[in-house]
Design brief:
The chain is built from 14 helices and 7 strands. With about 375 residues, it is an alpha/beta fold. It starts with about 45 loop residues before the first helix and ends with a helix.
Length: about 375
Amino acid sequence: MPDNSSKKNKPSALNVRPGVDASHDGLADGTPMAQQNGNRRRLLSVEQYVDGVLSGDRVLLARAITLVESGSSAHQKLAQEVLTAVLPHRKPAKRVGITGVPGAGKSTFIESLGTTLTAQGHNVAVLAVDPSSSLTGGSILGDKTRMEKLAADPNAFIRPSPSSGTLGGVARKTRETMMLFEAAGYDVILVETVGVGQSEILVRSMVDFFLLILISGAGDELQGIKKGVVEIADAILINKADGAGRQAALSARSEFERVLHYLRPATEGWQTRAFVSSALKGEGIDSIWSVVCKFDELTRASGVHDRRRMDQERQWLHDLVREGLSDLFGANPEVKKQMPGLEDQVSRGEIPATTAARLLLDAFSKK
C-alpha cells in the first residue's frame, strides 16, 4: 500500500496528510482532468479510477467511493463500469461486522484493533454504517475524530458512510465500497453499525464474522438490544473490563456463556462464546482477533465461508432488483397520478390497502 503520509507532525484526523494537497484530485497538475471547475471536481475516466484504486492511491480510492455513493444516474453508470473493471482484481478480505450499544466503546475498540493489525502488517479499512436521521436527514460522521490515531495511520482507511435514511442505501453503498477496498489491497474490513435493530441484520448479511460489544453494570445485560441481535453474533465481547469494572465484566461474561449454550449458533459448525476486553488499555484485543482468525480458518475448511459469500452475493442481486423496481414504480407517471387519491381513500377507510395496492400495480404494469 503506498505510503503518502508523514509522521513528523502530530497525527490528527482533522488535518490533511502532509504531501497531499487539499485540492488534489489524484492527477498530475496541468492535466485537463486536474483542472477545477469552481469547487466542483470533474469526473475521471473509468481507467483513471481503476488505476488509482488498484495502485492503492488513497485520494483516488476516496473519489471512487464517493462516486459509488452518488445518487446521480450518470454517476451510477460510471460507478458500475469501475466496479466491473476492478472485480477480477479483488482479493477477498476478512470482513468483520461490529455492533453494540452506545457507550460500549466500539470506536475505541476498533481503533485499538485496527492499530494492532496495521502494526502486524495488515491493511485495515473501516466502514461506519450510519443510518441518517429520519428527522433531519443528517448523519453522525464523527468516526475520524473518534479514531484519530487510526485515521492518521497510512495503512488504515476510515470511511463514514451515511445511508440517507434508507437501509437499502446502506446495503448497496457498503457492499460496493467493500469491493473497492478489496481491489485496493485492504485485507481486513471492519464494518461498524451505529444503530441497533434492523441495521444489525443488514450488516450481518455482508460480513463473515459478527461481533457484539456490550458493557456490564447497566442493569439488564441486553441493555435494550433485541435478543435477535445476540442470536446473530459469532462472539460477544464485554468491554471496559478494567479497574473496578473488571469483576462485573467477568460476571457478565459467565452469564452470557450460560445463555449462549441454549441458543442456536449464528454460524454452522461454530459455537458463539463471550469474552472480555479493555479496549482503552489494549487488553484482550489480540485474543479476540485470534478468535476471528480461528473462525475464518474453520469456516473456510468446512466450506461455510464460501457458501455464505455466495448466498450474500445472490441476496445482493435480489436486493438490487427490488430496489430498482421500487424506483421504477415510484417514477411511473400513472402511479404518481393515482397514488395521492388512493392514499387518501385508504387513510379514510374507504377502500382496503390491498385494493389500492392492486390498482397501483395494475397501473404500473399497463404498457
